[in-house]
Amino acid sequence: MNNDKWLEAYRTNKDAVWIKCKLTNGEEFFYDHQIGWKLIKQACKNNGAFVEELHLQFRSHEVTIDVEDAEAVYLVRSVMGQMGGESRQYYTTGRLEGGKMHKKMWLTPELIVEKELTDEIDECFEEAIIYNEKTQEN
Question: How far is Cα 23 from Cα 25, in angstroms, rounded to an integer?
Fold first, then answer.
């Protein structure tokens, strides 16, 4: 991934959790908001591409999301609250394998995995899923 392009984007909002993504066609995206994932999904659909690299980054702390050989990739903002307690915000990432979405909930802005779970595909937000067209053909 081109670090110079990333730094240029980062300087516009140093307090954000960034989505950094490289597609199989070489396109790179850097977004400081969830809407960016929809734009990445649209770019994949328009260009027949898939996610090759995916990272979340807050300041100097970067985490790599495993997307290798995934049937699909999932990313959505989420919030978990409890009665009388504090709400926590997350980025939930996932990879589809064998019809199951294996998810990790990354506490933001710290980017620490706080919870891991496996869901059926129909329990996931469809708009948050980018399918790998090559695995769908098989």
Answer: 5
